[in-house]
Amino acid sequence: MELTRSLLDALLDSLEEPIYITNRDGRIVQVNAAFEHATGYRAGAALGETPSALCHERHGEAFWSAVEAALQTSGKWSGTVWHRHAGGQEFPTSLSVRTYPAEAGQSAGWIGVLRPHAATPAAATAGAATGRDSLTGLPTRDLFLDRLEQAISAAPRDRRSVAVIAVGIDGLTHINDGLGYEVGDELLGQVALRLQQSVRRSDTVARLDGDRFAMIMPMRADDDAVLVTQKVLDTIRRPFTIGGADINATASMGVSIFPTDGAVAVEILSHAMSAMSFAKQSGRNLCQFYSNAMNERAMQRIRLETQIRRALATGEFILHYQPKIDVETGAVVGAEALVRWQHPQRGLVAPGEFIPAAEHSGQIVPLGLWVLREACRQNVSWQTLGLKAIRVSVNVSPRQFWAHDLVDEIAAALRETGMAPAHLELEITEGLLMGEVERSAEKLDRLHRLGVHLSLDDFGTGYSSLSYLGRFPISTIKIDRSFVRDLERNRVTAEITRAIIGLSRGLALEVVAEGAETREHVAFLRQHGCHMVQGFYYSRPLPPDDFEAVLRVGFLRPEVSGSGS
Ligand code: C2E
Ligand code: MG
Ligand code: MG
Q1: Statement: 315-553 belongs to CATH 3.20.20.450
Q2: Parallel/antiparallel/unpaired status of strands 245-247 and 240-242
Q3: What is the rounded CA–CA span in Å between residue 364 and residue 537?
Q4: How far is CA 185 from CA 119, 142, 161, 178, in A?
Q5: What is the CATH code for 131-302?
Q6: Candidate from 369, 514, 561 with most ligand 1 atoms within 8 A of CB, to mutate
Q7: What is the rounded radius of gyration, in angstroms, for the C-alpha atoms of the chain?
Q8: Is the CB of 355 under 6 A from ligand 1?
Q9: C-alpha of residue 235 to centroid of ligand 2, in Å
Q10: Cα 561 to Cα 104, 394, 485, 520, distances in angstroms
Q11: Which CATH number describes the domain made up of 5-122?
């Protein structure tokens, strides 16, 4: 049977993959229906054009010369090419090109077969030529890819990897349909702002289209992409206030990393996007890593999360209490409740091993509430025994802090255990307050009105912006252990510590030094006006019975003297 023109047309149109054929001059002479559909170009518009004219200009002359050279030597070429839709948007495709022979044995032209990486853009969405999205002011996909290309080329020199995080806002259609496009647009604007706030200023945040954003983050070896993604998920999870009403949104995220997950910008972005789609399918409000290695880590975390859930149900968590001591008298003036996991196989597990996972999964909220209630219950029971009434401190994690019912839960815990609010202290970290000053101030004020004390934990390790000390009703500052540890070795550290103590006293704040391990530490702190200390020099965190014994005496002799433990 002879291959007639109409048979060829029918054959090409029956294929699902977009195909074009060029003549010897590299001009398109034939496209199939799938090509028209994917690119939005009708045959009439595409015929006579060169394939490069239908692609993004990021593929410059050098790129197409390389393709041509490959075709001349080996007769084929394949790689990722960004096609431009007739509507203006570009989309990545895997392009395979082969030459086909003319009668005389010479190459007569090319046959190009496209495999779009994702759904091709709908027609009529005109591309933004400015590089900036008009709604959010963020870079568009074009500019994003340019910057990603730059980041990738700089990465090996700076010994960095580059993470691309694709973020899809879940349920935007729902919001648009139910509440109107103005609300949807406002939401996107606020999301854009929060995404920018959750990364370093030098990192790029872009709006790709509709409800999809992406971020470029150059990373050092010890940077943890998991932490960043968690931060972003949390940022989005907090309610948005639009027109006076609270609106909840969630995000699905996909991460891919140069060089592990791809070598060129388009590839890395497309992998991040597929990871994001996968996250969306497997239940919203999730993050998925493209690479298997990362998924293995994510899997471990999920296993841990399952175990934590079980441990909460079976009561495997316990609290230890570390005394806070007045260095002038040796009197026990308070205690910090520190959670431990009494694991049936692993024994006593330290919080550093499970708090991050609990924070990630959200189980920190029920776990934190358990800690709070247990600490109150225990403290009241000591008071009932007639022991000295002390203030017990409980750590509140960021996720817990932002839970909408934190204040109510604390009020309920105090009411139900019968503990006086003045005997409860909440330790929060300064990072939590940054970027959300208004909302934090409002929440802290509500807690303050409840009558509980508020202290700033790990002071000096975060932004240590002093301006907020006056804005928040905080009564205590806890100097981070890292300062105390280096007091003798590092003069700058010693100076900073002195300054923090002076500042706190100037602002009439209590100041507690964490991690005092030696007599020299205590002497320094005391000499410079810090009279409250929590550290191994006096005592490690103790099981309730041991702490009770300490409380009966009411005073502590140093546990170690001279050198550290
Ligand atoms: P943190 O709140 O800063 O608690 C102080 C940590 O420093 C405790 O570690 C304590 O054992 C340790 N420490 C105290 N004095 C010394 C010392 O002299 N030398 C040394 N090397 N370490 C000292 P721990 O119990 O392992 O807790 C670590 C962190 O886990 C806590 O840091 C806190 O951020 C978190 N955490 C503990 N319990 C809870 C909890 O119930 N809820 C939340 N959200 N976080 C908790
Ligand atoms: Mg603490
Ligand atoms: Mg601390």
Answers
A1: yes
A2: antiparallel
A3: 30
A4: 23, 21, 33, 13
A5: 3.30.70.270
A6: 514
A7: 31
A8: yes
A9: 23
A10: 96, 28, 15, 9
A11: 3.30.450.20
Q: Residues 67-70: contacts with CB within 8 Å, 24+ apart?
A: 67/97, 68/26
pLDDT score of 545 more than 90: yes
What residue owns the CA closest to ligand 1's atom 20? 515
The Å distance, Cα 321 to ligand 1 centre, comes to: 10
Of ligand 1's listed atoms, the one at least distance from the Cα of 485 is 19
Residues of the chain with CATH 3.20.20.450: 315-553
Q: Measure the CA–CA gap between 493 and 146, rounded to whole angstroms.
A: 42
Q: In testing the pocket of ligand 1, which one of 317, 321, 338 has its CB within 8 Å of the most ligand atoms?
A: 338
Q: Over the stretch 6-48, which tens digit does the pLDDT of each residue have?
A: 888 888 888 888 999 998 888 998 998 888 888 888 888 888 8
Q: Please tell me the predicted confidence (pLDDT) of residue 338.
A: 98
Neighbours of 448 (CB within 10 A): 16
Residue nearest atom 13 in ligand 1 by C-alpha distance = 515
Which regions of the chain carry the CATH code 3.30.450.20? 5-122
- Structural contact between residues 218 and 158, judged by C-beta atoms closer than 8 angstroms: yes
